[in-house]
Amino acid sequence: MSMWGWMSSAGLGELVRTSPRMTAAEYVNILQDVLLPSVEAMYPGLYQFTFVHDNSAVHKARMVSEWFRERPWIEVIDWSPKSPDLNPIENLWAAVVREWNDIDEGHHVRTREQLYLHAQTVWERFRGQNTCENLVASMPRRLKDVIANNGFWTKY
């Protein structure tokens, strides 16, 4: 089961199910058909934005790089291959996993469909809260902690 979602300081974007081994073509389709329309809905009239994704092979594929190059209004932040993963969306994924792990295994059959429904429920629960705003606002503190720890793991 794989999913893709996005967030900003203004809140959550969309959450979509992906194939277990997402291809560059699938990722480009998600960027085009999910990311762009939902960014426009959240930020009407926005003419430029910054995008962060990690160094997975799909994200670094030539097709993906070309898609971003054709859209110069999207600034993609280079992600260091050896950096700790400070992308705040990881905290949202962790919350989904934490709550999934808290389910009493003796009373629930776990299926892929149930996992997806669970992830959607947790994702939607974060809407309208300040969760994303707080995560983004925590970035200066996170970066200071990484620097103070000489680039090694921090509590984040």
Which regions are unreliable across 5 or more consecutive residues at pLDDT < 50? none
Number of helices: 7
User: Which structural category fits the helices and strands?
Assistant: alpha+beta
User: Proportion of β residues?
Assistant: 5-15%
Q: Determine Rg (CA atoms, Å).
A: 17 Å
- Oligomer state of the chains in this structure: single chain
Major β-sheet annotation? 2 strands, antiparallel
Spatial strand order of the main sheet: 1-2
Order of helices and strands: EEHEHHEHHHH
The tally of beta strands, per DSSP, is 4
How far apart lie the N and C ends? 25 Å
Form type: globular
Helix content: 40-55%
Q: Can you give the mean pLDDT?
A: 87
Task: Explain what the structure shows.
With 156 residues, this protein is an alpha+beta fold. It has 7 helices and 4 strands; from the N terminus they run E-E-H-E-H-H-E-H-H-H-H. A two-stranded antiparallel ribbon has the order 1-2. Helix 1 packs parallel to helix 3 (62-69) and helix 4 packs across helix 5 (112-126). The model has no long low-confidence stretch (mean pLDDT 87).
